């Protein structure tokens, strides 16, 4: 029976290398030149391209893609362990070729693109020669596909796209937009006439598609397959977010523990105050519960499919938001006044908490999925009483031991007195 929670020593060596590389090479760039890893500025590229080459030489580039899709084929479990390291270092995902939203877009291009689409968009995306965005959410209907209004209509040898999208993250900077219409996902290249950028919210762009014409071969996957592709994309994205949340929680706990051992109050370090100990104990326990859930889900995907693991993925999505909220709040609280400033990473980590509850679909929607799928394996009981109705269970047990009870009056009396106690009045 396989039930092993250990990491292979060879892979642990790679994880250790990644951690050291992130600390020594990536963190200093992030501190001085935020955004450098995705920048097209030659000076920033000169800083980051050699690091990306080192990652490629180590065979750690685009590690989210399976071998048949062009990646190293690590699988989700190893990716989860790597993301625990990468996600603690700002631009490490970009330096390792695993940055969102490109990862999800590459996954569906790899799985559903034609050979021509892969040559034109997937391989340049994998090499970071181009960037992409996913344009799904609409202002009037959020991410509920039944409410989408964006259409794509075939006219001669073109598709004509009309609609409005909201929160298309990094849309303006992207070279290609994967636009979800009522009848499928279409690839729209930046600069195509009719793409109108409105005032968005920071990096999350608001865009209108006004009679945008693309050739017929810009449809990704089958016509009418948009929801299926989006589910695959978002399923993968959610588990990757959960892996990154595990990393954020660990970083907050590391900070919390260092602080608890360093800060003194009322004659002792705050780690010696019981209420501080409770905060550390609760945080550490929640972190490990989340980590095990995420690793189990990643393992399930490796051994079946994203579809098979969808209940677990929904559990990761909802649980990581809750646990991140609890741990981040405690960490900030333990840092006192320093915690509420922008002089540590904690405020930025806290600011991302409400986002976790909403992005990739509100938690409520995922809780409905969990509950619906869990209930599928249950049946209502027959008659008035539940299956665990003890008097009925005892009657069955008495039938099993009927011979013994008939032969032994003392044992029969014991059973009778137990039965009498069962009906005693509750005072
Ligand atoms: C940081 C960030 C990045 C994003 N990036 C992208 C992107 O790149 N591309 C893209 O297309 N989209 C993106 N989104 C959008 C994201 O997919 C939507 O925000 C999300 O799906 C929810 O839609 P909404 O914001 O319209 O919220 P709404 O659907 O309006 O939901 C608001 C609230 O209503 C309640 N609610 C909604 N539905 C239900 C229900 N079924 N049951 C019970 N309560 C419900 C919940 O309390 C919910 O929080 C991003 C969002 C964030 C926050």
Describe the structure.
This protein is of the alpha+beta class. The chain has four domains: 9-113, Orthogonal Bundle (Butyryl-Coa Dehydrogenase, subunit A, domain 1), CATH 1.10.540; 132-220, Butyryl-CoA Dehydrogenase, subunit A, domain 2; 228-375, Up-down Bundle (Butyryl-CoA Dehydrogenase, subunit A, domain 3); 390-421, no CATH class. It is built from 16 helices and ten strands. The strands form three sheets. The chain has a four-stranded mixed β-sheet with strand order 1-4-5-8. α9 (310-334) crosses α13 (363-375). The two termini are 50 Å apart. The model has no long low-confidence stretch (mean pLDDT 93). The protein binds flavin-adenine dinucleotide. Flavin-adenine dinucleotide binds at residues 101, 134-137, 142-143, 167-169, 204, 355, 358-362, 364-365. Flavin-adenine dinucleotide binds next to β1, β3, α12 and α13.
